[in-house]
Design goal:
Blueprint lengths: L9 E8 L7 E8 L11 E4 L2 H6 L3 H11 L6 E5 L6 H5 L6 H19 L9 E6 L1 H12 L6 E5 L5 H8 L8 E7 L5 E3 L2 E3 L1 H14 L3 E7 L5 H16 L6
Parallel strand pairs: 3-4, 3-5, 5-6, 6-7, 7-10
Antiparallel strand pairs: 1-2, 2-4, 8-9
Length: 248
């Protein structure tokens, strides 16, 4: 099977130019499914922390297996890298680089990807996924750009006060669909903003999102704030939107 080009796993790396980001560009990784054809349109998953999703989350490996062995509809994955030194500044609404990053994502990255790859250009076929702050900024992007995004996978989202304040501003969020996970061993996790109980952060976000009419599937299970936990949950998370029997 591995010698057949139909089953080849392909990952491309690009530098996307930007007028918003201080460095003027951002590295992305693009997974193309087996049997990829330029004339077919594909659902697309956009990952925050792109390098980690590919290296530690093994999202390309998971995707390849699910498409080949479990007969999922093929999809494309785009991982957007981040400099760890700027991550909090880019991902949090009160961060110095937040507006630059979110404008890059919505106004530069999405058009660039859609002009270079045959991804579907409607909210129901664009999925945002992220871990910790990446999960929270994925929700933040959907709130800020509802015409672009309404489907979110959040792995142990870091729903600090600024994100909650964003949610509160909306009278209704009935277009949003979320798959959310948190580990029960994330009660006292040290972050660069202090020690947080991620279970309570997620429960608070869930209550508020439900009050606003968002549709969500929320999971609590044994797990720590680590890639070893999130990696194992990725197939179930992706299945909620992309599997043969999606939840949404």
């Amino acid at each position: 099977m591995s010698d057949n080009p139909l089953y080849k796993r392909t990952i491309h790396k690009h530098e996307v130019p930007s007028e918003f980001l201080p460095e003027g560009k951002r590295t992305i990784r693009v997974y193309l499914p087996p049997g990829f054809q330029q004339w077919i349109s594909y659902p697309v998953v956009y990952c925050q922390d792109g390098e980690e999703f590919f290296n530690f989350g093994r999202i390309a490996t998971h995707s390849q297996r699910l498409i080949l062995e479990e007969d999922w509809e093929p999809f494309i994955v785009v991982g957007v890298d981040v400099d760890i030194n700027n991550r909090t500044s880019e991902y949090t609404p009160d961060g110095e680089l937040y507006t630059r990053y979110t404008r890059f994502f919505a106004e530069e990255l999405i058009p660039w990807v859609e002009s270079h790859y045959p991804v579907r250009d409607v909210p129901d076929h664009r999925i945002l996924i992220g871990d910790s702050l990446g999960g929270a900024v994925s929700l933040s992007l959907a709130l800020t750009y509802p015409s672009l995004f309404n489907r979110i996978i959040s792995l142990s989202g870091a729903y600090y006060g600024p994100y909650i304040e964003q949610i509160v501003q909306f009278p209704t969020l009935d277009k949003l669909k979320l798959w959310m996970l948190v580990g029960l061993q994330e009660r006292e996790f040290q972050t660069d903003r202090g020690i947080f109980d991620f279970v309570e952060l997620n429960r608070s976000a869930v209550r508020l999102l439900e009050e606003k009419g968002a549709k969500l599937h929320y999971v609590e299970k044994d797990g720590e704030h680590k890639w070893g936990f999130w990696q194992n949950e990725l197939p179930e998370a992706l299945a909620s939107f992309l599997g043969p029997k999606p939840l949404f």
